[in-house]
Here is the input.
Amino acid sequence: MKESFSYTKIPEDSRIGITCNSLQGERREEDAEYDEPETIRAIERAIERKGLETIRIEADLDCFQRLREERPDFVFNIAEGVGRGARESQVPFMLEMLGIPYMGSDPLTLAIALDKARTKEILSYYGIPTPRFQVLWNVDDGIDSALDYPLFVKPLLEGSSIGITEKSLVNDGRQLREVSKELIERLKEPVIVEEFLEGREFTVAMLGNEPRVLPIIELDFSSLPEEKRFDCFEVKWYLDDDKLVCPARIDEGLKRRIERTAIKTFRALRCRDLCRIDMRLDADGIPNVIEANPLPGLAPDPKENSRFPKACYTAGMSYDEIIWAVLDAAVRRYEGSSHIQSP
Ligand SMILES: Nc1ncnc2c1ncn2[C@@H]1O[C@H](COP(=O)(O)OP(=O)(O)OP(=O)(O)O)[C@@H](O)[C@H]1O
Ligand SMILES: [Mg+2]
Here is the structure.
């Protein structure tokens, strides 16, 4: 694998922009997805170790102007953007307008992936298993009687488990009303209600545009009470190193099935260069896709258990190699030596 990180195609005097939203002070719900300074520094160092210059550009209201003035030759984008909805698309849109090449998915894919219902509509078109669902736009919207309880309620447009708590798993209409009302009123956005997948949970990191599937991670909830076996604010403390099992202990058949579903999802959503896909098994043991993260967290410290780097470390890569591999995939794509494939 190392040979393919040749990364020689970026001229030596190139300036690589790092577009990011850096976390200022304590983390709050609004900036739950912003990056720690250590992550941004680690990316800069990895790129600088290749002899390239870096320039950091904060993805705030001055971002467009700075990109326009600085005109980096290539951008490594980890920006979450500001506000809600399609926020992760903001920086890629600016880069498209300015004609600056960048790594990662395009604005359309990033916007779709942030909307869990739109994502699932596309997956359904391609026959990729995903739980049945409904979007509740208002607190008094009627509930689809075709959905089978238990159901799972979460915000339509968030990530990082924002709005997901122990109460997200609901057993009847009364609980569903209560939880969705609280979320819609507090976050001022719709909720998605999905059938609950009772089986094991996996997250799958992918690199490149073939793409390459990295060792699968299992989120092992087995020592929690049954009604708490999902990733939410209250169980974050629980999901430390030994509960994120990588490579997952699964048989060859299931491994192949998960990998196939991950690759199909990557292609159906037209992801580029990297992505992390969350899945769970349904009652029949079939992997169902919960969501796709085309802009996965890249915290370098193994103690942080950031899932994308964790899968790469298990594959024997160093942090620098992760960053180089992502850049390499993006550069090859622009050169036309790697092609996006249809699902
Ligand atoms: N339909 C479902 N059935 C069972 N569990 C679910 C379902 N949907 C979500 N979950 C649980 O809730 C967790 C968070 O859901 P999801 O991945 O959709 O939200 P997120 O906030 O975007 O996550 P991330 O932290 O990966 O950004 C999942 O990892 C899973 O444990
Ligand atoms: Mg998730």
Notes: Residues 278, 291 surround magnesium ion (ligand 2) (CB under 6 Å).
